[in-house]
Amino acid sequence: MSELKVRTRTTGAVAVLSPGSLPVVTTPTGGMVDVVTGASAPGFNPLDLLYASVAACMVLSARIAATRMGVAASLGEVRADVSGEKAAGDVSRIGRFTITLDISGDLDEATKRRIVEDAETICTVSNTLRETPELVTALAG
Asked: Which DSSP string do the residues of 28-65 spell out, in sequence order?
């Protein structure tokens, strides 16, 4: 039996809002994205980043699932379309996420469904959103 190798990376994000500009988000590994605030401005707003995190995690998790199932060589393009609906009430939050996976490749429907099911259990982002994570906010200094 082969030993499972777990690769880790430093995760997190820092957002900086300088006077007169829009936020810039960076990661410890050097990633950077500008954040937009206008409703029709091209680019990512904070909700887009949340949806993008779910979408990216789901497609990567689908690839992991296919690899674990031994069908990665038959896997074609995997596309995740993620949207959401605002929750009713006074608190501004998303009440429902809709995730649609489109999987191409030389795979039957049952195998595609299994990949989707396994991806749901693998994806750290969607698993986090299914629960109520503890959020701790503090003032630096």
From this structure: TTS-EEEB--STT-SSB-HHHHHHHHHHHHHHHHHHHH
